[in-house]
Amino acid sequence: MKYLGNFAEWIDPAVIEYLLAHDGTKRPGGGANPDSEEFRIATSVGYDLTNTYWHHYDDKSTPLKIIPPFDNNKSCMWWFIKMTPGQFMPMHRDPHVTVDHEKHNCTRYWMPLQDYAPGHIFVYNNEFMSNYRAGDLWSYDDANEIHGACNIGYTPRLTFQFTTYNETI
What we know:
Layout lengths: L1 E5 L6 H9 L3 E4 L8 H8 L7 E7 L16 E9 L4 E5 L2 H4 L2 H4 L2 E6 L7 E5 L2 E3 L6 E4 L7 E5 L5 E9 L4
Antiparallel strand pairs: 1-9, 2-3, 3-4, 4-11, 5-10, 6-9, 6-11, 7-8, 7-10
């Protein structure tokens, strides 16, 4: 992952309050699960995709109006993730970039909304992300790379993700 800088001033405290006060779409059980190889593997080893492992917030499920802090002159899709203690996200590739992603020349971004706390885990490929600050922004080296997360800490874990495209999808 490539570090792009810190955008802490972009984080709206009202968004943090909203995420902490509301449950998003319960995933994977509350939304359509992609027919992906990673989710087939997850199911085969015992993950129950009808449970709630994380909460997802986007422009279709919340009143939030978000303009990403970077690369915002392109077509974009964004979402927030909240993981309460004990929640996790199996290793996966994002479905919106696994199908014909090169046609759209997409770039994936990841931003923690809080300073690193012990137990707030994000893994990209073979890299464990830690010692980050709220607002640090990274771009994925490969938008289609495998990644996953979990919260084995004691506080909610909040992150912002977005994907930009050179053309409208």
